[in-house]
Specification:
Length: 233
């Protein structure tokens, strides 16, 4: 089984205590692909402040042990998100960003995010199978993966990307950046919508996770080969 890291998100329990949680739908997708979900939490005390050097080193150790990482949705990006994104990029570990996860990827590469209502968008609509169209940029990573120029998605975000140095792969008809990638990497893709919530009924969501786990398999084989070489006399 592959080890798939998932960055945990903070959540308040009914008691008022803070908990670090993993999205159940993402957990279920990982299990569907016969892999092990590994929850990764900030490894320093005050997660709202910049990551400490010790916390950074510990986080990198956990990420290095993974065969792929999913950056899930959430309410707010923290410094540990950005530290994780930069490490994953540098070490070419398969990375799939979803909603906030995609925004964190964009922020890590000279990006900015803005409140979508200020831009006149209305993508924050929950409880529907499909909410709006997304137009795929020709010859992009997403185009090569999906072989189509337009898809339907669901969304529940309140923020959107204003700019980033990553390659834009998809845009909604009203101008929201819907997917970004680093084409030179094995798999470094972020999408603004929620494919984990659509996997039971949507072919594109299955194609995205298929591509991610294929990249995870390739990365796993490379790691195993490298370890074998290091073990030779």
């Amino acid at each position: 089984m592959y080890k798939i890291g998932v960055l945990a998100r903070p959540d308040k329990l009914p008691s008022g205590n803070l908990a670090w949680v993993m999205n159940e739908m993402i957990r279920d997708v990982i299990i569907r692909y016969e892999s092990d979900p590994v929850i990764i939490v900030p490894l320093y005390t005050n997660y709202q402040k910049p990551c400490t050097n010790k916390g950074k080193l510990k986080l990198e150790q956990y990420l290095f042990a993974c065969d792929g990482v999913i950056l899930p949705g959430g309410d707010h990006p923290y410094d540990y998100d950005i530290v994780a994104v930069k490490y994953l990029y540098e070490h070419d570990i398969p990375t799939f960003g979803i909603c906030l996860g995609m925004q964190s990827m964009a922020l890590a590469f000279d990006g900015e995010i803005t409140y979508e209502a200020l831009m006149g968008y209305q993508h924050n609509q929950k409880g529907k199978d499909y909410i709006h169209l997304v137009e795929i940029v020709p010859d992009s990573v997403l185009d090569e993966m999906l072989h189509t120029n337009q898809i339907k998605v669901n969304s529940s975000h309140q923020d959107c990307i204003a700019k980033t140095d990553l390659t834009v792969c998809a845009i909604s008809p009203d101008g929201v950046i819907e997917a970004v990638a680093a084409p030179q990497k094995q798999f470094f893709l972020g999408v603004q919508w929620h494919p984990e919530a659509m996997i039971e009924y949507d072919m594109v969501s299955n194609q995205l996770f298929d591509a991610f786990f294929k990249a995870v398999g390739r990365y796993y084989e490379i790691k195993q080969h490298h370890r074998s070489d290091q073990g030779k006399p």
